Amino acid sequence: MDSVLASDDLYVRETVRTTVKLLIVGHFAVGKTTLVGTLSEIRPLRTEETMTQAASSVDDPAGAPAKNTTTVAMDFGRMTLNDRLVLYLFGAPGQRRFTPLWHDLARGALGALVLADTRRLEHSFDVMSLLEEKGIRYAVAVNQFDGAPSFPEAEVREALDLLPETPLVVCDAREPVSSTRALIALVQYLLASTDQESA
Ligand SMILES: Nc1nc2c(ncn2[C@@H]2O[C@H](COP(=O)(O)OP(=O)(O)OP(=O)(O)O)[C@@H](O)[C@H]2O)c(=O)[nH]1
Ligand SMILES: [Mg+2]
């Protein structure tokens, strides 16, 4: 696929025939805003707010001690994957208290990329069950933080209780090539599932 990550095109190309809405989801501080920012060819829309001391007892900042802002609504970005296909990326907060927001954000989404962190894999269950409740297919991308343990794929699959067909990849949300690979794994899975359904 011809990625145009380097492009700073403001407008969608005339050749584009398909636009797809995808969700970028995951628990607190797993790298959602970072990934949307890495992949977006337009200046991403962000809704970051400074966290208060009180928030640290609700959202565990252990994995990202320097973090002092959090997304309070959504992230939004756009990525032209090839001449004909544009992806709209919607980053959605994963905490259960944001469930009402999901009802709108998830509408029309073809699928979701779930970001996970090997230091707290169990924190991903809330978001995966929300997706399952909504019948949204997903792929999982482990965002490999510095110093986080790296486990064999089979162990991560077992810990997350993934179906055999659910794609699992490792990425660095700050890095365009590996983030693009993660998104391509999701898109290929969604296209294959859609083909199977229409066969
Ligand atoms: N080392 C490393 N740091 C990362 C990576 N991805 C994100 N970070 C850092 O981790 C912190 C959290 O990233 P965010 O992108 O804000 O995470 P988020 O999931 O959007 O967080 P919330 O919206 O608050 O839930 C930031 O300080 C990022 O710079 C990564 O792949 N590696
Ligand atoms: Mg965020």
Briefly say what this structure is.
The protein has 199 residues and is of the alpha/beta class. It has helices at 32-39, 99-105, 125-134, 153-160, 176-198; strands at 18-26, 48-50, 69-71, 75-82, 85-93, 111-116, 138-143, 168-171. A 6-stranded mixed beta sheet has the order 4-5-1-6-7-8, sandwiched between helices. The chain has a two-stranded antiparallel sheet with strand order 2-3.
Structural commentary:
The chain has 199 residues and is an alpha/beta fold. Helices cover 28% and strands 24% of the residues. It has helices at 32-39, 99-105, 125-134, 153-160, 176-198, and strands at residues 18-26, 48-50, 69-71, 75-82, 85-93, 111-116, 138-143, 168-171. It has a 6-stranded mixed sheet with strand order 4-5-1-6-7-8, with helices on both faces. Strands 2-3 form a two-stranded antiparallel sheet. The radius of gyration is 16 Å and the shape is globular. It starts with 17 loop residues before the first strand and ends with a helix. The structure holds guanosine-5'-triphosphate and magnesium ion. Guanosine-5'-triphosphate binds at residues 26, 28-34, 64, 66-67, 70-71, 93, 143, 145-146, 172-174. The site of guanosine-5'-triphosphate has 20 residues, from helix 1 and strand 3.
